[in-house]
């Protein structure tokens, strides 16, 4: 659906007509229908917003994501508003039904994948036993016939093992290759790709405010020229609403705000998509699953768990910290996953342009020690599909071609120079917490 609605801009301009388009579950608006080719001025995802009908104004409807976005809208008349309400309600209902169905499919596929992984471990154990049997037979000088029989058993086990591994990948390809936003918990703003932050050191960018609402500005960052003479064309950066690790402000006791930390974790997930949405799907599934476990703990008592430390200490006191699927265990694995991503980005920031080598080095420093033979094999398989440096950097930018600009590399290093130290500081705090309460685990999966 599309048409004209009046949008509240600010106390100076008041209500202004805008051209609105509802498509694919997203409501976008433009200055006018004629100016739609210039791109939308803003948008809101219907599936995560609240639709509120005004109590006294029969033409008004408010769309809100508490603490994130506020769209105050007016239709031309009550009948027109009713049409928009029906369209918005239908879109929201369809998206909610689809999300529920998707979550059910995700849960079923997760269980199927876990079952297959258990089978892989079993076949791995059998394979090792058979190899040891061959070694024993060789030492004892058994007959050739015995050796042939044992060899056939090993061959059969290897075939079954590889077939099961292929089935694991098929489940991952079929289930987890969709966009990461389908994994977001209800009420969580959709995850967007990481885009360059505005760094004061660049010095040449300016903020142009087009409109404002009750919450703040709808700002567009425009680089007025990155070269010394401003010779390169302007780059239009999308406004990034996600919280990132460098935005987090610790409390006086180095407490890490729970919600901001989880938002920052959601914001880094798209890096895994850039590495290969299919082959890294199991990694992403595990990463997002741990975020959700901690989020569920938070929503159970938002006032009681303002920081990550408060969650861990609560479970320590209740002897739940080392229970399977506890928030403390989820944070343990989430922390390990973040260390892997931090090491990978650090390798890239240090100048490593071989993405496969950067991933392998990061894996060796962080996750490898906690993974058994099967999981290491899956990761080795994923490494083969790692993108080139050029394709990886091209996937990170918000506008095609920006990775070719002369200032792209310096901008990326500046951004990572702010982002990575903040991320490392929070990981060190969590390391000290887990060490203090002896919560580390050497369990291999």
Task: Please describe what this structure looks like.
The chain is an alpha+beta fold and 445 residues long. It folds into 4 domains: 2-76, PH-domain like; 106-176; 180-191 and 242-436, Glycolipid transfer protein (Glycolipid transfer protein, GLTP); 198-239, no CATH class. Helices cover 51% and strands 14% of the residues. The protein contains 11 helices and 10 strands. The protein has helices at residues 78-140, 144-176, 258-268, 270-276, 281-300, 308-317, 327-349, 355-365, 373-384, 389-396, 408-436; strands spanning 2-10, 14-23, 26-30, 42-45, 50-53, 60-65, 69-74, 205-212, 217-223, 235-237. A hairpin with a 3-residue loop joins strand 6 and strand 7.
List keywords for this structure.
alpha+beta; three-stranded antiparallel beta sheet; seven-stranded antiparallel beta sheet; Glycolipid transfer protein, GLTP; PH-domain like; about 450 residues; elongated
Quick summary:
This protein has 445 residues and is α+β, with helices and mostly antiparallel strands. The protein is 51% helix and 14% strand.
**Do you know the CATH architecture of the largest domain?**
Orthogonal Bundle
Cα-to-Cα separation, first versus last residue? 50 Å
Q: Give the CATH class of the largest domain.
A: Mainly Alpha
Task: Trace the largest sheet across and list its strands.
Answer: 4-3-2-1-7-6-5
Shape: elongated
Query: Biggest sheet: strands, sense, closure?
Result: 7 strands, antiparallel
Provide the β-strand percentage band: 5-15%
Number of helices: 11
The chain-level mean pLDDT equals 78
Element-by-element helix/strand order? EEEEEEEHHEEEHHHHHHHHH
**What is the helical fraction, as a range of percent?**
40-55%
Strands, count: 10
**Looking at this structure, what is the CATH superfamily of the largest domain?**
Glycolipid transfer protein
What's the number of structural domains? 4
The poorly predicted ranges are: 178-241
Summing up helix and strand content along with how strands pair, one would put the structural category as alpha+beta
CATH fold descriptor of the largest domain? Glycolipid transfer protein, GLTP
What is Rg? 26 Å
